[in-house]
Amino acid sequence: MHRPRLLIVFGTRPEAIKMAPVIAALRDRPQITTRVLATGQHTMLLTQALDAFGIVPDANLSLTREGGSLDAALAQLLVGIGCAIECERPQRVVVHGDTLTTLAATLSAHLRGIPVAHVEAGLRSGDLSAPWPEEGSRRVAGVLADLHFAPTAAAVAALRAENVPEAAIHLTGNTAADALCAIRARIAAEPALTAAIEPVLARFKAKRIVTVTVHRRENFGAPLRGIAEAIARLARREDIGVVVPLHPNPAVAAPLAARLDGCDRVALIPALDYPAFVWLMAASALILTDSGGVQEEAPALGVPVLVLRDLTERREGVVAGGVRVVGTEAARIVAAAGEVLDDAHAYAAMAVARDCYGDGQAARRIADVLLATMTGNMG
Q1: Alpha helices in the chain (DSSP H)
Q2: Which one from 13, 118, 138, 247 is the annotated catalytic residue?
Q3: How far is CA 334 from CA 23, 230, 241, 300, 339, in A?
Q4: Residue 350, class by beta-carbon neighbours within 10 Å (0-12 exposed, 13-18 middle, 19+ buried)?
Q5: What is the pLDDT of residues 324-366, one digit of tens each?
Q6: Is 120 a catalytic residue?
Q7: Could you confirm whether 215 is annotated as catalytic?
Q8: Catalytic hit among 96, 138, 148, 215
Q9: What's the order of all strands across the beta sheet hosting 169-171?
């Protein structure tokens, strides 16, 4: 008997992390065939994420882009994904979030009349320039997809406001919570998974750790220099050690290194694999980040977060009290960090574990809906 074929497409580390639980849940459902295409939009970072979850893609694209334009990258992705879809012949394509891979896969499927399911649907900042270009990518997916897996009630409301049919919207929770639960369980069983970060934790054993991650394009240039200056000022404090896992993009790594090399209480380290990074987050007193995933993960760990952006589409953490949006101006970042670190009451209010992004069952819910849709068993 012919089984319906599903093609999951992703290309970046965050996508791989958040789609790993979905892949696992779908592969537990033998009624459908689940295939995985990795585009390689990220290279080393994507490989790290795949290895952490034991995922071996069924197909890979090899992008040749090295510092090229976004439209050139999109063109490569469109052609490559289109060829893969022709070979795989899926009845449905599943995408995640808001990357160039998401945009290209959505368009490639749409141009072939293949329905698209969008995981982490409905996130909206309301500003096409922030995050850029991601806000545009997820809005396109929101128009072209016919199944929308919304992580939160706010995402459901955003989709409704855009006149997405009610039957197409499914509130699932965020698969980031599923991935975090899975990796924490693996760390408990295999402590050696955290070996890469242990020397840094030992170096700052007597200090409060502040972890910093940055990578967003809208922060390139002057905003990133402001962030670097804030880190340098924070590192003057004798009670903290700042850990900065460097994104491999030179537009990020070079400005940070230029300002922070030689700062005694700053550790500039290579990007960590996911288990080691989760361990670092859990060991941190405070996290400064422009990452969407970290905004979802850190509240579940009870670690306060300062968001290095002017606005966030992930408002649930802010409303719950574990996240603050502070922008990229050095003085404002330093002041906010000082308030959190020095005010015991403010710190205690933020450092509470919260499940505002899910209960760890999102992947199961997504797989259930996909199975029912593809086998015609919608109840």
Answers
A1: 13-27, 44-53, 70-88, 100-111, 134-144, 153-161, 175-189, 198-203, 222-234, 250-260, 274-283, 292-301, 316-320, 330-342, 344-350, 362-375
A2: 247
A3: 41, 6, 14, 24, 9
A4: buried
A5: 999 999 999 999 999 999 999 999 999 999 999 999 999 999 9
A6: yes
A7: yes
A8: 215
A9: 59-60, 33-38, 5-10, 92-96, 116-119, 147-150, 169-171
Task: Write out pLDDT tens, residues 169-226.
Answer: 999 999 999 999 999 999 999 999 999 999 999 999 999 999 999 998 899 999 999 9
Catalytic residue among 15, 118, 124, 134: 134
The pTM score is 0.92
Catalytic residue, from 65, 139, 160, 217: name it: 217
Domains of the chain: 5-173+361-375 (3.40.50.2000), 192-350 (3.40.50.2000)
Instruction: State the average pLDDT over residues 229-256.
Output: 94
- Whether 217 is catalytic: yes
Residue 120: both structure tokens together = 């982490």
- Which one of the listed residues 120, 135, 290, 297 is annotated catalytic? 120
Looking at residue 379, its pLDDT comes to: 45
Token pair of 330, please?
């050095």
Q: Cα–Cα distance between 317 and 325 in angstroms, integer?
A: 10
Q: Is 185 exposed, middle or buried (0-12, 13-18, 19+ CB in 10 A)?
A: exposed
Catalytic residue among 98, 229, 290, 313: 98
